[in-house]
Write a structure and sequence with these properties.
CATH architecture of the largest domain: Orthogonal Bundle
Protein name: Nucleoside triphosphate pyrophosphohydrolase
Order of helices and strands: HHHHHHHHHHHH
Structural class: mainly alpha
InterPro entries: MazG-like_dom, NTP-PPase_MazG-like_C, NTP-PPase_MazG-like_N, NTP_PyrPHydrolase_MazG
Keywords: Coiled coil
Number of domains: 3
Organism: Jannaschia pagri
Largest sheet: none
Radius of gyration: 25 Å
Shape: extended
CATH class of the largest domain: Mainly Alpha
Pfam family, one: MazG
Number of helices: 12
Length: 267
Amino acid sequence: MTDPCLTPNGGLPRLLAIMARLRDPDAGCPWDIVQDFSTIAPFTIEEAYEVADAIEREAWDELEGELGDLLLQVVYHAQMGAEAGRFDFHSVAERVAQKMIDRHPHIWGDGDRDKSADQQIADWEAAKAKERKGRTLDGVALGLPALLRALKLQNRAARVGFDWPDTEQVLDKIQEEAAELVEARDQLTQAQVEEEMGDLLFVMANLSRHLGVDPEAALRGANTKFVRRFEAIEDALSKTGRTPADSDLTEMDALWTAAKQAETAET
């Protein structure tokens, strides 16, 4: 009998069989056997970010592999769920399939399809709120990156009217929080400094939301720019046989400005 794990072009059934074999207590991989939901979760998050990274870089030749790695994480969790008698891959797939049907009555029901994308988003959020049947902020995952979670919490609160009407009030709040941070730095404990820094970052996320800016994307862009310009500093110093450790802040700041001006000239 042909081993399904070794069947070429076996698709999803092949992948499911491979995962079951890896987790087999008698014939599986020792590392895979001892894993659980909590130990695999960090890999799941990492793989999702690698998918986002490939898309950000438009590395389409890498995206197929990254999506496969992310799919493997779903298969891994589903296998552990099946072993515990909680759920399996097929029940996971059926659940999300039914959710898509229920949330798209304008496609598989008598809902009106003649609506804007914004209205469809509003309807989607209303459907999710009805499913939650709890507090407004319930269900915003604790495991999300803090910046993304702040944005989702604010979006939830805004849908029930807890929001500033315009950016001016958000900007005023940023000034207030910045002043409180300075006061904490000069007079309070490190724990209070951390708290005030968190308040300032939270309001900055809110400003991003009001400006229609994805703060995660904006920060990723800033990170990329920082790397590019710092590498320009290193390149400039290397021409004289030096590294940043051989330089000082004044020189490196001047080289940073030169790199910035060069980028501006190119655009």
